[in-house]
Amino acid sequence: MTDAAPAIEARDLTLSLGGTAVLDRFDLRVAPGEMVALVGPSGCGKSTLLAVLAGLREPDAGRVLIDGRDDPGRLGRLTLMPQHDALLPWRTLIENVGLGPALAGADRDAARETARRTLARFGLAGFEEHYPHALSGGMRQRAALARTLLGGARGWLLDEPFGALDALTRADLQGVLSRAWSQDRPSALLVTHDLDEALLLADRVLVCGPRPARVVAEVVVDLPRPRTIDDTARADFAALRGDLLAALRGAGALT
Description:
This protein is an alpha/beta fold. It has helices at about 45-55, 95, 100-105, 110-120, 135-150, 165-185, 195-200, 235-250; strands at about 10-15, 20-30, 35-40, 60-65, 70, 80, 155-160, 185-190, 205-210, 215-220. It has a 6-stranded mixed beta sheet with strand order 6-7-8-3-9-10, sandwiched between helices.
């Protein structure tokens, strides 16, 4: 794996589960260093798509390409952050966050030092030896983001990482994610139901209709970075939100 962020591409992905079509000739491309958001109704196949891209599930047909090449051994090439923090409850915060470097071959002291610096960067200095059960939901998600950053991959797959958080914590962590992405510039695919979150974080937003998942519209977010919650009150931001709502209605995702 090179240090460059990979391009992530799906071509004609098709998948049925239990006789139900979940993906139907699904196409998308995330350019190197680009963040793309994917929005659509619940149950349309977005999380399943991430599992296929990550190598956790194989499609019935179609191809996943990384840097333009078929990658059947792609498991581990992209870091998947699930909807819940998935921290290991028997490990301290520093052990959870240092897991990626340790698995990549770093010795214990080096992995802990890397994790310590990253935890400080994510506002978690002083909590290194705490176990996940002793932390708030927002702190656990900060730690999960830190672990994603240290996962060793230059591509991120983010599955509604802030969906279970309250509005203030979600806004705070959107800023944390935006700064981390801006510094490291991984290729990133973000699944979210929050239209403002998609517009705050992404370069492009892809709209899916009801299952089986297909991209039915694309909205380019041509707003300057960095973006903050204050930008949600701007007229051009509201216009893009209106475009997304219109696309979702046109796809039958909204009544």
